[in-house]
């Protein structure tokens, strides 16, 4: 079950390559039937994206594209849900997994495995990692880098559901205010 964000890696690699080739902002994706975008209010031009089924909300530069994939495993099927936005500079991802109800996992091992698999999947080097509690949930925050990109990520365990948020930025263009806006806006609630 250590492969839970395998689709995330493939999506991230493809998205980074496409973002590097683009010179204009892509059009906003239309919202899906379940998730919704709240009015921008004081979001600094970003939209608050809310997923009712995912039990989370987050600020993003535009509405994300959603991808879902169910995978069979020795521990039963699991479904990966990804929400992706790429602008002309950065890539933003939010993902969560729904496991087969019979699968039980160790929370800390799951956090560590998600970090390690993510870093390996994008062929990066882990540069920092720390355990923390965010909004009362066990979490792991880490940074990694490739030759041209920096990645900041958080992995949460909420109930039986692991969540991961990632921002990928060019090494020469990291804006801490953008990273903090994205990270601090992510809110998840138990389901």
Task: Give a quick set of tags describing it.
3 helices; seven-stranded antiparallel beta sheet; alpha+beta; four-stranded antiparallel beta sheet; 191 residues
Structure summary:
This protein is of the alpha+beta class and 191 residues long.
Describe the structure.
The chain contains 3 helices and 11 strands; from the N terminus they run αββββββαββββαβ. A hairpin with a 3-residue loop joins β8 and β9.
* Nearest-integer average pLDDT: 82
Rg (CA only): 16 Å
Largest sheet: 7 strands, antiparallel
Low-confidence stretches: 9-40
- Which strand order does the major sheet show? 4-5-6-10-9-8-7
Q: Structural class per helix/strand content?
A: alpha+beta
Instruction: Note the beta-strand portion.
Output: 35-45%
Helix/strand layout:
Layout: H1 6-21, E1 36-38, E2 47-51, E3 56-60, E4 65-71, E5 78-86, E6 91-98, H2 107-121, E7 125-134, E8 137-145, E9 149-158, E10 161-170, H3 176-185, E11 187-188
Antiparallel strand pairs: 1-2, 2-3, 3-11, 4-5, 5-6, 6-10, 7-8, 8-9, 9-10
């Amino acid at each position: 079950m250590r492969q839970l964000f395998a689709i995330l890696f493939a999506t991230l690699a493809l998205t980074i390559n496409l973002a590097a080739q683009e010179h204009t902002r892509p059009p906003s994706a239309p919202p899906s039937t379940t998730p919704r975008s709240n009015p921008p209010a004081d979001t600094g031009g970003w939209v608050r994206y809310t997923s009712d089924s995912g039990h989370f909300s987050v600020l993003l530069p535009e509405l994300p594209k959603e991808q879902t994939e169910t995978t069979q495993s020795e521990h039963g099927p699991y479904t990966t849900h990804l929400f992706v936005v790429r602008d002309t500079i950065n890539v933003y991802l939010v993902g969560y997994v729904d496991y087969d109800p019979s699968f039980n996992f160790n929370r800390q091992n799951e956090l560590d495995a998600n970090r390690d698999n993510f870093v390996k999947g994008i062929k990066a080097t882990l540069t920092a990692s720390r355990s923390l509690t965010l909004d009362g949930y066990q979490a792991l925050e880490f940074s990694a880098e490739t030759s041209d990109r920096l990645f900041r990520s958080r992995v949460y365990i909420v109930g039986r559901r692991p969540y991961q948020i990632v921002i990928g930025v060019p090494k020469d263009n990291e804006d801490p205010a953008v990273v903090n806006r994205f990270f601090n806006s992510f809110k998840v609630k138990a389901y």
